[in-house]
Every structure is written in C-alpha cells, then in structure tokens.
Design goal:
Immunoglobulin-like; 3-stranded mixed β-sheet; DUF2141 domain-containing protein; DUF2141
C-alpha cells in the first residue's frame, strides 16, 4: 500500500431495525455531493448497526451520506413531495435546513487510516 493511500471505516449505528441494507456513499467534492458518489458500499445490518470499509483511498477531503435501504430496492425512497421516507444521515451529523445536508457541513479530512461513526 502506498503511503498516500488510507483505509476509511464507516460505522453506522442507531438503525431502527435489521431489515434491508445500509448504503454508504463517499464523496470527494462539493460539486458531486449527493449527486455522484466517488465510491459506494453496502452492508447488511446486525443489531441495528452496520460497518463498511473503503480501502486504498487517496488521503484527502471527503464527505459521507448514508441511508437505510429498508426494502433493498437500491434507492432512497421519497414521498410525493420529494421528502425521504427511509432513514438517512451524513458525516459530522450534518443536517439539512429546508433541504439536504451541505458538503461544507459534512466534509472531513483523512490523512491516515481512520474510522467515522454515524448515528441515525
């Protein structure tokens, strides 16, 4: 492994049940946040928790968005007004105001192997 590459483990907790999967999207720029993932992983849920690990990442700035895909259909379900119907969360506990969280609130730097904890 190159000195500039790191491992990022994402631990998700506080899920309401073990049904479905957790989807974790990793973003590396403001322009792609919540639009196009840099990398994405999914995990089964056990005891209302899930863990994924992104290996061989370049050190740098990232943000995470995750959601509980309770029906395992591969997307964040929304109601007729566009509001999410499945649980979701972002790194740094970033919350949106009248919309989704902002990259500037969710971003963090990774310079070595790290773990990020996200609670629903």
């Amino acid at each position: 492994m190159s000195a500039q590459n790191v491992k990022l483990t994402v631990a998700v907790s506080g899920l309401k049940n073990d049904t479905g999967v957790v989807k974790v999207g990793l973003y590396n720029s403001d322009g792609t946040f919540l639009k196009t993932t840099y990398k994405s992983l999914a995990s089964e849920i056990k005891d209302n928790k899930a863990v994924v690990t992104f290996d061989n990442l370049p050190a740098g700035e990232y943000a995470i968005s995750t959601y509980h895909d309770e029906n395992s259909n591969g997307k964040l379900d929304r109601n007729s007004m566009g509001m999410p119907m499945e649980e979701y969360a972002a790194s740094n506990n970033a919350k949106g105001f009248m919309g989704p969280p902002l990259y500037s609130d969710a971003k963090f730097n990774v310079s070595k192997d790290s773990k990020v904890e996200i609670a629903f």
